[in-house]
Request: fold
Amino acid sequence: MTTAPVSKEATGEGRPKRRRGGGVCLRLVDWLRIRQLRDDGPFTSTRQAECLNPARVAAAGPVTGPPTHVSLTTDQPGFHSLHGQYSNGIIQAPNACVLGAYGSGKSAWVKCSYVLKPVATGARVLVFDKKRQHQDGADSGEYGRAVEILGGVKIPLDRRPGLGAVINILDPAIVAVGAEDSMVGQDELLSMAAEVACGGRLVDTADSAPAHALRVAHEAARRRAAAERRVAVLQDVIDALFSPDPEGVPGPVDADGRKTLAVQGVVTVETLIRWGLPVALGLQRFISGGDMSGLIDGETRGPGDTELDLSDPLLVFDTSAMSDSSPALGMMMALIGAFVQARWTLVPGPKILILEEAYNVDRLAGVASVLRALAKRGRASGTAVVTVLHHLSDLQEGSDLWTLIRETDVVHLFLQDKTDDAEQCVAMFGLDSSLLETLTSLHQGTHLLKVGRRPLEVVQQPRTALEEWITDTDAGMLAAPEAAPRFAVTEQEALDAAV
Ligand SMILES: Nc1ncnc2c1ncn2[C@@H]1O[C@H](COP(=O)(O)OP(=O)(O)OP(=O)(O)O)[C@@H](O)[C@H]1O
Ligand SMILES: [Mg+2]
Reply:
């Protein structure tokens, strides 16, 4: 319930007096005393009060989530939740992208609107935190304070033995064969890993069929592990590539149960070895001693061989120990995204996967296509994918990531410091060219918000004191230098120091 005082505009106070001889209606208005100023506000419900300013109320948009911003376009508070907007039919898929120049406030928005508020209202969130940030006397990563406040768990990814988590690419939580409309499967992840390791796509031709060799080796690995009553691991696939099952020869079987192509000598077990050899050699890079070992070899486990507990609502994978734009980093983002999404299918409720510094994966075709598949198939597990980038020019036009962003219904456009970048945004999202000036002059913490077909708004993110603390990424820039060492000044102090 609210009290709604009638404004001076509504009462007409201060307006010139009506000329004599006005219409019957106006006399009626006078008689009803509607144009008189009321000192005490009438007691009314919020619902009834809407009629006092219908145009403004309509502009505010539906309440689909917690309050997140103030619209500078309508002067109204704004509410934002990807799952809320999806369930209200405002957007077709619950995915978002956040674009903006360095330090424009992207992560602050993501931390408050896609981490703090969703987790506080029952969602699960997975973040890849790439930024090393020295805060509160420790190297906490930029999501460290969010983890501290929300009680989340931080999981390091680090190739050095015992320091990071290992994700088994053949973990039973991940379905063996992916389906177009539900989950990303082990088969897609394996081929992504092989492509990352081999540095190119696995394409089957008349002369060589590496993708087929990998597929049948995967099946053989699963069969062998099941027969031995254990979980299949990457080494099983490599073994099966080096020594394939005769069953892996493609094509029909004759009356005696023999593969026709093998009988004719067209494709034999030796042929399978030849097709699979580069894949096996590539995958060996992930096995102990290889240059990408310690990430996907062996059964899934947490740092220091502990059990990897993913039950916490906030999971922050710390990728700061991995080099920028490295193939291993992109591959792990896609693999962990698929793995956690698979585990989340068993848990009801909304989930959000946040890809900070997503441009890291664009050059890796197989990786970007898995991430796009995660976004497309997220509805099966209730997962929204949020992609955070600086500029569209960081992406190759037409790449999977580019397409993912073009298909995204919710776009947050922070400052674009170069006209070229702003023009690219205007073209990509079909905006009016009059917005170019706005895009190149947005202040920190302010952005252009596009949600489905709703009118565009310039929105500003107010932060509470706690949110300011959580989202402060300037600690390194603004930190005072450490206290200068004090030199001994007295004879006694000099002697003490010498001892
Ligand atoms: N709404 C806001 N109001 C005022 N200051 C803000 C707001 N949002 C962020 N800032 C400040 O701006 C600084 C940069 O914010 P943030 O780290 O979110 O930017 P970013 O765009 O993610 O930067 P980068 O591109 O380096 O990742 C932070 O220290 C933060 O405190
Ligand atoms: Mg950031």
Summary: The two ends are 75 Å apart (CA to CA). The pocket of magnesium ion (ligand 2) is lined by residues 106-107 (CB under 6 Å).
